[in-house]
Structure to design on (252 residues):
C-alpha cells in the first residue's frame, strides 16, 4: 500500500495533468522535489488505474479522461471565468461561511480564496479542495461518492454533511439554462445543489455567457431562488431576453 505522502503527491500529479492537459516527467519531479524515477513510479501506478497514460517523457490524461470535458473546460473561457471569480469573491465582505460548488468557474473562485484568511470554506469539489489545501482558511470537504466526470462528491454522504451547515454565501455553477432556471447534466449533482440552496442565505450563480446557448438535462432551481447571477460582461439585448427580467444580473 502506498504511504500517505505518496497518495497525496499522486493526487496532486493527477490535478496538474488534468488541469494542463499533460505534463513532462522532469517538470513534475522539480515541482514535487523528488527524482524522476519517483515520478515514473507514481505515473506507472496511475497508469495501471487508467487515470493517466504514459508517453515518452510526458504524462497525459487517460483516454477515459480525455472524453471527460472537465479538464478541457478549465482552459475554455479562462479569462471570463477569472473575471467572474474576482468579482464574486469581492462580495464576501463580512460573510464567513462559504460554499464552493464543483465546476471550473467555481474552481477559479477557490484559487482566488487562497488570498483570504479566516473563512470557513466548504466544498464538494475534489479539485477546489486541492486548490485550497494550503490556504489560511478552514477547509471542510463533504466527502461522499466521487463522481469522476466532475471530480465532485455526491450522494447521501455528501448531502448529509451539507445539511449540518448553514452557509452565508454559496457560489454555484451550471451547465446551461432552462427557461425556468440554471441546469446541470447529472441528477447526482442536482441533489447536492438542492441541499446547498436550502442551507444558504445568499446563492450566487457563476456563469460565463457561453452557457446562455446551452441547456442541461436537469433544472436544479428556479431563477427566483437565486440572489444574483454573475456573467463576465454585460449581456446583449438578445441575451437578456433569454432570462426573466426579474433576475438580478451583474457583470464582472
Amino acid at each position: 500500500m502506498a504511504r500517505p505522502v505518496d497518495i497525496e503527491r499522486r493526487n496532486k500529479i493527477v490535478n496538474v495533468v488534468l488541469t494542463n492537459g499533460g505534463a513532462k516527467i522532469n517538470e513534475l519531479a522539480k515541482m514535487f522535489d523528488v527524482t524522476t524515477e519517483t515520478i515514473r513510479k507514481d505515473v506507472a501506478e496511475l497508469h495501471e488505474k487508467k487515470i493517466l497514460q504514459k508517453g515518452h517523457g510526458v504524462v497525459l490524461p487517460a483516454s477515459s479522461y480525455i472524453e471527460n470535458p472537465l479538464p478541457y473546460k478549465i482552459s475554455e473561457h479562462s479569462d471570463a471565468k477569472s473575471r467572474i471569480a474576482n468579482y464574486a469573491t469581492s462580495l464576501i465582505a463580512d460573510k464567513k461561511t462559504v460554499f464552493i460548488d464543483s465546476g471550473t468557474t467555481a474552481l477559479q473562485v477557490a484559487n482566488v480564496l487562497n488570498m483570504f484568511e479566516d473563512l470557513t470554506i466548504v466544498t464538494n469539489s475534489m479539485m477546489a479542495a486541492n486548490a485550497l489545501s494550503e490556504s489560511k482558511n478552514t477547509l471542510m470537504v463533504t466527502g461522499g461518492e466521487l463522481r469522476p466526470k466532475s471530480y465532485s462528491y455526491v450522494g447521501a454522504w455528501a448531502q448529509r454533511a451539507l445539511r449540518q451547515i448553514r452557509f452565508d454565501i454559496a457560489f454555484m455553477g451550471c451547465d446551461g439554462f432552462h427557461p425556468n432556471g440554471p441546469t446541470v447534466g447529472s441528477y447526482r449533482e442536482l441533489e447536492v445543489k438542492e441541499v446547498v440552496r436550502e442551507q444558504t442565505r445568499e446563492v450566487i450563480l457563476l456563469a460565463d455567457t457561453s452557457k446562455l446557448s446551452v441547456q442541461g438535462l436537469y433544472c436544479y432551481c428556479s431563477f427566483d431562488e437565486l440572489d444574483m447571477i454573475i456573467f463576465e460582461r454585460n449581456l446583449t439585448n438578445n441575451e437578456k431576453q433569454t432570462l426573466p427580467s426579474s433576475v438580478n444580473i451583474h457583470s464582472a
